[in-house]
Design goal:
The complex is a heterodimer of chains A (147) and B (143).
Chain A lengths: L5 H12 L3 H15 L16 H6 L1 H19 L4 H4 L1 H9 L6 H18 L5 H19 L4
Helix pairs in contact in A: 1-8, 2-4, 2-7, 7-8
Chain B lengths: L4 H14 L3 H15 L18 H19 L4 H4 L1 H11 L4 H17 L6 H19 L4
Helix pairs in contact in B: 1-7, 2-3, 2-6, 6-7
Classes of the chains: A mainly alpha (147), B mainly alpha (143).
Chain lengths: 147, 143
């Protein structure tokens, strides 16, 4: 699906290697629910999401953030094959969870911002470009089984 | 998705904290936009140097932040405040309005890079809404 240069592959692995899924996942998902509050519709069973503090302190949000971020690990480890890697996840989101695929792009953008906050200036424009290319491929793969 | 009183308060307070670094913010955001979204270079083909942090990029980043400052000062009626900027972008520069979202994203990335503690979720939602409102105001005169 996509050509990765060696430099791109090592940049993505290096960025991902410095990301703590248990920290970044909850931060990213929490921010999505705060910045785009209509996304809360998917998490009716999560309990109190009424305020930013409630969202960032909610253990179910945190747990789910870790799951979502953990799934990115599969993409990093299968960069040559992201489309196939996400086939069944895409089908699940399309046919069982009924998640609007625009949310994948939204989560990718927020994740980029959370990673930028963590890395600071070492998240250079060039690294951002490579990371966002990777996010674009992941987002496309997640949307690929929607008709 | 209009700005509430709470949003306006948050934007003004946050802007007061970061305005001192406005030129750095503008320079970095524009640099990132040109690298991460190379199609945006089309609007700057008359510059000698489009590389991150170059002189024309820094200067123009400052100009853009001037526009953002104006929008903050006009926050109760951004469309009125940005009227002539909208005409400029619509009739002279003819910047495709899709690019306002792209630049906004890069401004948010830079705010996260430079102000990781202050750019908390509450500041993030207020600034995202504000930049979207700025994009809409700039698009007003297009057609």
């Amino acid at each position: 699906m996509v050509d990765w240069t060696d430099a791109e592959k090592s940049t993505i692995s290096a960025v991902w290697g410095k990301v703590d899924i248990n920290e970044v996942g909850p931060l990213a998902l929490g921010r999505v629910l705060i910045v785009y509050p209509w996304t809360q519709r998917y998490f009716g069973s999560f309990g109190d999401v009424s305020t930013p503090a409630a969202i960032m302190g909610n253990p179910k949000v945190a747990a789910h953030g870790k799951i979502v971020c953990g799934a990115l690990d599969k993409a990093v480890k299968n960069m040559g094959n992201i489309l196939a890697t996400y086939k069944s996840l895409s089908e699940t989101h399309a046919n069982k969870l009924f998640v609007d695929p625009d949310n994948f792009r939204v989560l990718a953008d927020v994740l980029t911002i959370v990673i930028a906050a963590k890395f600071g200036a070492s998240f250079t424009p060039e690294i951002q470009a490579t990371w966002q290319k990777f996010m674009k491929v992941v987002v496309a793969a997640m949307g690929s089984r929607y008709i | 998705m209009s700005l509430t009183a709470k949003d306006k308060k948050m934007v003004k307070a946050f802007w007061a904290k970061v305005a001192g670094k406005a030129e750095d913010i503008g320079c970095d955001a524009l640099s990132r936009m040109l690298v991460v979204y190379p199609q945006t270079k089309t609007y700057f083909s008359h510059w000698k140097d489009l590389s991150p942090g170059s002189a024309p990029v820094r200067k123009h980043g400052g100009t853009i932040m001037g526009g953002i400052s104006l929008a903050v000062a006009s926050i109760d009626d951004i469309s009125a405040g940005l009227l002539s900027l909208s005409e400029l972008h619509a009739f002279q520069l003819r910047v495709d309005p899709a690019n306002f979202k792209i630049l906004s994203h890069n401004i948010l990335v830079v705010l996260a890079v430079l102000f990781p503690k202050d750019f908390n979720p509450e500041a993030h939602v207020a600034m995202d809404k504000f930049l979207a409102a700025v994009g809409r105001a700039l698009s007003e005169k297009y057609r």
